[in-house]
Structures are given as structure tokens and as C-alpha cells.
């Protein structure tokens, strides 16, 4: 998925606290040098994941130093498993390990509580 | 906690997949304009949290558009509760709502699985 925020600049806001139950997938990564087709595939994954039942949203940011954090939100573990097993996504994951990522960590976690704050 | 990556530029890498059990706290936010003492308090919180039993680490990134994502890792829910209740941290949270954040969302989640990848 893209390193760019889901929301366009000027309309940026955090995704909300969804109604329980739901899961987060934290993907923190450092890229290799160059694009190597990453951008195009990332855009395609952004499209594809939206079609998945149980997908709630995702948000991303990257430091100038190169650490990227993408957090994806899904209704349940089955939705995460289904997304992992989609053919195009599997191919992208494979290419990610072969070309795009120097290193990454994935944490899959079940949300127990969440809340939001917005200035009045 | 700071919007800067924990690791200095040049040594940037994702935090590892910790041994289970552990929790993640995802904090996604949009700041108000200006610093207003945020940077100093953020640095102080970075110091303080490291003293908390059960604290494993945290990593942060912010988009040019202003969406910040900080993911903190703790051994258990008690460690999260203890950190939430530290006096200086409570004061910082209060000032965050009063001055520093336009909006934010917090998700507290128990990690069920995790793994890492590093180029050989």
C-alpha cells in the first residue's frame, strides 16, 4: 500500500476509532533505493484492498530518514487472511521482499479499546 | 511522544517483531499550527516512557500533509495503564488536547502475530 496519506493534503485527518471489534495491521518498513515499479503497484494495491469485505481503511506516513509506517484496519482476522491471499497481493508481497523493501516488520493485533479527539 | 523516528537518520530501521505477548498503541494525529512547547514536552515524554516497566519501544512518522502516526509497543495492558497515569504524562495529554492537537485517534490492541523481514 502507498506511503502517501489516504486523505489529500488539506483534508488530512486520522481515521476514526471504529466500532469494536476490529484489527490493526502495523507495517513498518525501510525501502530500498529507487522506485522499481513500487509506486504503480502500491496504487493498484490501494484500489484492490478497498474491494475486500471487512477492510475499514489504512493510513501511512514516512519520515525524511526513510522509516515508513502504514496502519491498516480490518473488521476481523478472516478479512486480513483473505487480503493476504489475494493473488495480485501475494505477487506484490513477493516483489516487495525481492526488490522494494530493505526490511520490514508486521504486527497483527486485535483492538481492545479506541477513542478519538477532535477540537470543538 | 516525538514525531521523529527513534533511530537517527542513517541508522533507520523498523522496530522488531517482539516476542508475544505484547500490545501496540497506535496514535494517529493532526497537529495545530506552531510548536507551543510541544517539542520540549515530546522530548521529555520520550525520556520518561523509557523508564516505564513493560515499555518496548515506539516509532513515528508524519506525512508532509500533516498526518502523524506513532506506534508504541508495551508488554501488557497494565504497562499501558501505568504510563497513561504518570503525572507528567497526564499533564502532557491535557495540554495536547488544549493546544497541540487538532484531532487524534488512539487504538490499543493486543498483538496476535508478528514477523520481520530483512534483506539477506
UniProtKB/TrEMBL annotation, chains A, B:
<protein>
    <submittedName>
        <fullName>Antibiotic biosynthesis monooxygenase</fullName>
        <ecNumber>1.14.-.-</ecNumber>
    </submittedName>
</protein>
<keyword id="KW-0560">Oxidoreductase</keyword>
<keyword id="KW-0503">Monooxygenase</keyword>
Amino acid at each position: 500500500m502507498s506511503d502517501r496519506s489516504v486523505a489529500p493534503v488539506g483534508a488530512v485527518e486520522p481515521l476514526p476509532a471504529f466500532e469494536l471489534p476490529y484489527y490493526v495491521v502495523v507495517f513498518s518498513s525501510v525501502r530500498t533505493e529507487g522506485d522499481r515499479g513500487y509506486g504503480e503497484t502500491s496504487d493498484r494495491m490501494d484500489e484492490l484492498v478497498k474491494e475486500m469485505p471487512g477492510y475499514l481503511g489504512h493510513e501511512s506516513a514516512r519520515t525524511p530518514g526513510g522509516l515508513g509506517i502504514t496502519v491498516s484496519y480490518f473488521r476481523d482476522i478472516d478479512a486480513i487472511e483473505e487480503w493476504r491471499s489475494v493473488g495480485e497481493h501475494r505477487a506484490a508481497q513477493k516483489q516487495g521482499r525481492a526488490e522494494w523493501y530493505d526490511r520490514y516488520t508486521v504486527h497483527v493485533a486485535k483492538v481492545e479499546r479506541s477513542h478519538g479527539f477532535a477540537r470543538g
